[in-house]
Amino acid sequence: MDLKKALIDLQCEMVAERNLVNPKDITWLQYDILYQVNKEGESLPSDLSIILGVSRTKLSKALKGLKSMGYIEQFPNKSDGRELYTSLTDEGKSLLESISEKHHSLYKIALEFFTEEEQKEFVRLSEILSNNLRKERIDKDE
């Protein structure tokens, strides 16, 4: 199979799966923000912008929506009051847990169709690709 086609097919399938599990009141970008903030802990918008590969303007709009829905809270950076740290509220954590439970079905399918060796190889290859994609975005921004 052609690598380019395989990557496009996988991306399309993952988007379709994501459509099934993400709540309708948040966008994909907002979910990604919640996921990253949960993963990293308190996060600065400048860091989120780089990690997610979006403009500060687009990120700011998404953060404003998440804040109005009560999923995040923001507080000033002690060393630079112009920038706000973002963290999840209890409601934001609860929403992520709910979405995570829905993602479990994708995990069960992977367990069913991949052997243990294939699972390990998929994890290894996915981490290589994800880490290098992230590094490319970060290096491009610097």
Overview of the structural elements:
It is a single chain. With 142 residues, the protein is mainly alpha-helical. It has a single domain (3-141), classed as Winged helix-like DNA-binding domain superfamily/Winged helix DNA-binding domain (Arc Repressor Mutant, subunit A). It contains six helices and two strands, in the order H-H-H-H-E-E-H-H. A two-stranded antiparallel ribbon has the order 1-2. A hairpin with a 7-residue loop joins strand 1 and strand 2. The longest helix has 26 residues, at 116-141. The N and C termini lie far apart (35 Å). The mean pLDDT is 89.
Write a concise synopsis of the structure shown.
The chain is mainly alpha-helical and 142 residues long.
Topology:
Layout (H helix, E strand, L loop, with lengths): L2 H19 L6 H13 L4 H8 L3 H13 L3 E5 L7 E5 L1 H24 L2 H26 L1
Antiparallel strand pairs: 1-2
Helix pairs in contact: 1-5
Task: Using brief descriptors, characterize the structure shown.
Arc Repressor Mutant, subunit A, 142 residues, 6 helices, globular, mainly alpha, DNA-binding transcription factor activity
Count of beta strands? 2
Q: Based on the structure given, which CATH architecture is correct?
A: Orthogonal Bundle
CATH H level, superfamily name: Winged helix-like DNA-binding domain superfamily/Winged helix DNA-binding domain
* Shape annotation: globular
Q: Give the CATH topology.
A: Arc Repressor Mutant, subunit A
Strand order of the largest sheet: 1-2
Number of domains: 1
Average pLDDT, rounded to a whole number, is 89
Assigned CATH class:
Mainly Alpha
Q: For the record, give the distance between the C-alpha atoms at the N and C termini, rounded to a whole number.
A: 35 Å
Strand proportion: 5-15%
The main sheet comes to: 2 strands, antiparallel
Compressed to H and E, one letter per element, the order equals HHHHEEHH
Tell me roughly what share of residues is in helical segments.
Answer: over 70%
* Radius of gyration (Å): 17 Å
Pfam families: MarR_2 (PF12802)
Keywords: DNA-binding, Transcription, Transcription regulation
GO molecular function: DNA binding; DNA-binding transcription factor activity
Domain HTH marR-type: 1-131
